[in-house]
Amino acid sequence: MNQAEAQYREILHTLDKLLTNLGLMLEDYDVEYLTQADLYIEIYKVMFPVLEPALNVNFGEDISDQEIIQYLINLLAKDIIKMDLDHIKGIGIV
User: Fold this and answer.
1) Tens-digit pLDDT profile for residues 23-67
2) Residue-wise DSSP of the chain
3) Other CB atoms closer than 10 Å to residue 13's CB: what's the count?
4) Which of the four pLDDT bands, split at 50, 70 and 90, describes residue 85?
5) Are 68 and 59 in contact (CB under 8 A)?
6) Which of 42, 39, 59, 60 is nearest to 51 (CA)?
7) Where are the domains of the chain?
């Protein structure tokens, strides 16, 4: 197994542990799933139930995963940790 394969497996293993610890049972996911906003919305719903009303927004089809992830980062910054997270960008995740 080369280094890239080892890192890929480690990422999948860590993602699997995170989802299991949060009680999220998702099927058929891979590392690419880390770039999809749906994953982060589900994680936020479990970790920050107080944000659920803000997470039940109909984003529409014109909104990209990058924009949704940026929305989530901003929500986390403003409503949970009350800290400026301008250095974290949704485009860096997607």
Assistant:
1) 998 777 788 888 889 899 999 999 999 888 889 888 888 889 999
2) --HHHHHHHHHHHHHHHHHHHHT----S--GGGGG-HHHHHHHHHHH-GGGHHHHS----TTS-HHHHHHHHHHHIIIIII-S--TT--HHHH-
3) 10
4) low
5) yes
6) 42
7) 3-93
**Nearest C-alpha neighbor of 69 from the set 51, 94, 32:** 94
What global pTM score does this model have?
A: 0.76
Residue 59 corresponds to which tokens in the numbers above? 């984003």
Half-sphere exposure of 7 (CA within 13 A, CB side): 3
Q: Which amino acid is at 74?
A: N
Tokens 């920050």: give the residue: 48
Structure tokens at 9: 């497996």
| 37-47 CB burial, b ≥16 within 10 A, e <16 | bebbbeebeee
